[in-house]
Amino acid sequence: MAESGKENIEQKKAELFRDPTVPGPTTTELSALAARLNYSFGDDELQQCHSLITNALKGFNRLDDLVEPTLPVKYPRTPGYRPSAEENPYNAWYWKSTIKGAGTGKLSGKTFAIKDSVMVAGVPMMNGCRALEGTLPDIDATVVTKLLDAGGTILGKAKCENMCCSGSSYSSAYGPTFNFHDKTRSAGGSSSGSAVLVMAGDVDMAIGGDQAGSVRFPASWNGCVGLKPTWGLVPYTGAGSIDPSVDHLGPMTRTVHDCALMLEVIAGYDDGLDHRQPPNIVVPEYTKKIEVDNLNGVKLGFLRRDSDTKHPRRLWIKLYGKQHKTSQDIWIGFGFEGAYHTMLRGSLQGLGFKGFYPTNSMKTIGAALKHDTKHLPEHFKHIMLTGAYLNETYHGQLYGRSQNLGRLLRQAYDDVLKDCDVVVMPTVPFVAPKLPTDDEMTWEGHIHHSIGMVQNTMAANVTGHPALSINAGWVDKLPVGMMIVGRHWDETTVLKVARAHEKIMTGK
């Protein structure tokens, strides 16, 4: 047999019996990868590179003998079950599983739903997407542990929109979530199930997630209270990320008091596990600070659009809007590319930060997003394709430029909030629309129904300011959300204004 034939056989044997933990690439795989990166190798160089990579991975495989730290799973639970249609009239539950927390605490006797983008150990998670069905987290997200430690009882996972990439409620893999007030209309997204379960009384409170308005859209269209806290106030550890710079978890409740109570429990520093957080977070007892007889001394500012120029100027109202209009362009400027890196390349977690990585779930999710693409929604594919194009063409420049411009938007908000204590505006400039029909679901239709409601909400995600939606009244028997935006770390004033409004609306 020729010498070259023997070498080929030996190479094939080596490739067949590689270390099974983290196998290195074959030379064919390495050559294809080099071509995608526009690297040119001769045969000898390719063999040398292959040898170096194989040796480097030996060190990585030695890590397999070490036990990595994980997050505590402190309370027993069973896997639960998918509820029947009779148990789920609004199609707002994804999964039911009862987990009882500590015997005492601030949340003793309270029940909760957890958005299905947030990990609960041993309970299935699919993030609204059939491609991710079968994901079984082995950790409890930090907010889940905090709720249970405070005596809360979790009743299951609330449905969310497909890959959490829609502000409407039509896209989840198991069908639309129906608006609490009108089942023909959208419940908002992506925290659709969380809002509806709260309003239906299935649970007392729920966890929602918000990257562009996903707590506040459902709160507005269903009439509950939904708070996107200051960026970093509530730990995001163990939740699916879109881009770390806009990730928020927050409470969704029927009353402002419950919102304040829940925030007291879930807010606070996560011992360095969440890189979004500064270490010196102070969490007030919000429930003791929001009950006031009046708002004397509190200055309210109102968003002004071009159509409002004839609005009579009141003494205590600050009218503005110029910088606010840029927020959607800024968000899209970094959000699509950020989502590509975080969701697709980083398995819903991203890379490059100090903190906790849920590695078992990342493996399952990453493989699903790469191989089960037929079950990915159109609007997600649109975002990934746009993000990949921007990255490969502009090499992060547009992402960086948009983030830099976001600093100017934050400063513009900070400047306005020097003259007033909160800024008030509609959460969404229209009531809940009808759920889309199949005929509307072209690619353009998906994008329109996914992001057609973000005009006012995206700014607070870019700037990180706290923003709360509360019901302000009714149009055609549908709730209208009012959004209250405050200074960084000043949830107290935001909640105080919301509570004063609630008293006016309810008389109690």
Primary descriptors:
Amidase signature (AS) enzymes, 508 residues, alpha/beta, 11-stranded mixed β-sheet, 11 strands
Model description:
It is a single chain. The chain is α/β, with parallel strands linked by helices and 508 residues long. It contains 14 helices and eleven strands. An eleven-stranded mixed β-sheet has the order 1-3-2-4-6-5-10-11-9-7-8, with helices on both faces. Helix 5 (192-200) runs parallel beside helix 6.
Work out the helix count: 14
Helix and strand sequence: HHHEEHEHEHEEHEEHHHHEHHEEH
Mean pLDDT: 92
Helix percentage: 25-40%
Estimate nothing, just give the exact number of structural domains.
1
- Major beta sheet summary: 11 strands, mixed
Q: What is the CATH class?
A: Alpha Beta
- For the terminal residues, how far apart are their CA atoms? 92 Å
Strand order of the largest sheet: 1-3-2-4-6-5-10-11-9-7-8
CATH superfamily: Amidase signature (AS) domain
What is the percentage of strand-forming residues?
5-15%
Shape designation: globular
Q: Which topology does CATH recognise?
A: Amidase signature (AS) enzymes
Structural class: alpha/beta
Uncertain residue segments: 13-19, 307-319
Structure summary, number of beta strands: 11
Q: From the alpha-carbon coordinates, what is the Rg to the nearest angstrom?
A: 24 Å
CATH architecture classification: Alpha-Beta Complex
